[in-house]
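Hi all, posting the design record for the shared folder.

TITLE: backbone redesign
STEP: 1 of 1
STRUCTURE INPUT:
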């Protein structure tokens, strides 16, 4: 059966160019980059080239890039590393719609006695800047606001947020895991101190990520031990995947604008087709500020999981807003924070596209969805028969 992959916010297919770039580092170029001898020295320069490529994607200096094992490690390092750097006040500000990779370390600091403020979001998932300003009156804090939301695609006004946070003398981290490679990011213009990214969201393999640490920003390393990554992240570098991340960053930088315009056109086609052909459906998120690849759509009166199973039977992979946090059966904390009504939260599906999706695939989903929705509604306890 042909498979149609529409779950790119969960993970992306590694690009063939990335796989090709990795190969030599799994065979002849297997040295430890910290070794002084020829085996190590031979690979060190490729790690540094990858650092330059990742830095270039967000307009950073190579020395400001710390390689990590994933977006989660980057987020944890940023929040725990900055939150526990000695001269900062024990105040943390985040939003109610952060990824668990941010919420987890924030709650950990709260357990350790830090004051945690979680900013509310409105019905499209945006924070109120006046509420942020009010929270910033606490005094110096670590503030973490994601660049774009993984479930709805809502893009936050990070330039404006970062400026306010910096004007208040606080430290600003952004989880840009879903934004890097999809949106233009320039840390010379946007005053973020720390920014997380993850390889497997931009066509590199799982198991590699990076944290941008603005020059002069103090963080305590999360992993302790060796002096790798300029003593900011101990552990022998994952050379093959770092090289892969570098190649993925290069691909994203070269073709991003045209590629994302094409992806947005496909997403819009899917959205229009589904809204038109499936009654009682609506889109969640900020339609005016949304990732080009993301469509979070609710089909009222039915369960997202049931839709997912039906799609999966046809070889179509998407994900559901009602159980999207890695197998949890809790309804999405993001949609709940937005005040999306119960019946819409439960019937929400996220389609997330990539450069590898085609118009033919989109049309296949549009053609199949009405029958799935109608059949499930026939069986739904939420629908009044004949009503
Ligand atoms: N932050 C966001 C917004 C994400 O979407 C994800 C993954 O889904 C992460 C962090 C965690 O990244 P990783 O899977 O690389 O640990």
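Okay, here is what came back for every position:
SEQUENCE:
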């Amino acid at each position: 059966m042909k498979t149609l992959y529409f779950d790119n916010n969960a993970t992306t297919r590694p690009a063939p160019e990335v796989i090709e770039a990795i190969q030599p580092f799994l065979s002849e170029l297997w040295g430890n980059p910290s070794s002084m001898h020829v085996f190590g020295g031979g690979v060190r320069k490729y790690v540094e080239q990858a650092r330059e490529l990742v830095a270039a994607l967000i307009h950073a200096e190579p020395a400001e890039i710390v390689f990590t094992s994933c977006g989660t490690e980057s987020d944890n390092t940023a929040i725990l590393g900055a939150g526990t750097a000695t001269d900062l006040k024990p105040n943390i500000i985040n939003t109610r719609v952060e990824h668990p990779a941010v919420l987890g370390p924030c709650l950990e600091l709260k357990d350790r006695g830090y004051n945690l403020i979680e900013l509310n979001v409105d019905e499209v998932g945006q924070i109120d800047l006046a509420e942020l300003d009010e929270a910033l009156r606490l005094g110096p804090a670590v503030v973490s606001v994601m660049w774009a939301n993984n479930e709805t695609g809502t893009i936050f006004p990070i330039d404006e947020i970062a400026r306010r946070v910096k004007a208040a003398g606080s430290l600003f981290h952004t989880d840009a895991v879903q934004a890097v490679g999809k949106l233009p990011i320039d840390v010379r213009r946007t005053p973020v101190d720390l920014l997380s990214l993850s390889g497997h969201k931009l066509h590199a393999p799982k198991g590699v990520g990076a944290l941008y640490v603005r020059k002069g920003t103090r963080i305590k390393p999360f992993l302790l031990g060796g002096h790798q990554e300029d003593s900011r992240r101990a552990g022998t570098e994952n050379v093959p995947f770092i090289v892969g991340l570098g190649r993925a960053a290069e691909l994203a930088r070269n073709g991003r604008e045209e590629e994302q315009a094409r992806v947005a056109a496909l997403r819009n086609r899917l959205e229009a087709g589904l809204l038109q052909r499936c009654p009682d459906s609506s889109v969640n998120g900020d339609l005016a500020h949304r990732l080009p690849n993301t469509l979070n759509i609710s089909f009222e009166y039915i369960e997202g999981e049931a839709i997912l199973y039906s799609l999966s039977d046809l070889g179509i992979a998407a994900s559901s807003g009602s159980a999207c946090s890695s197998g949890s059966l809790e309804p999405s904390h993001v949609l709940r924070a937005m005040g999306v009504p119960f019946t819409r939260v439960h019937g929400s599906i996220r389609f997330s596209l990539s450069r590898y999706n085609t118009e033919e695939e989109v049309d296949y989903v549009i053609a199949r969805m009405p029958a799935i929705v109608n059949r499930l509604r026939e069986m739904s306890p939420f629908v009044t028969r004949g009503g």
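COMMENT: The domain at 4-10+256-379 is CATH 3.90.1150.10 (Aspartate Aminotransferase, domain 1).
Let me know if anyone wants the other runs.
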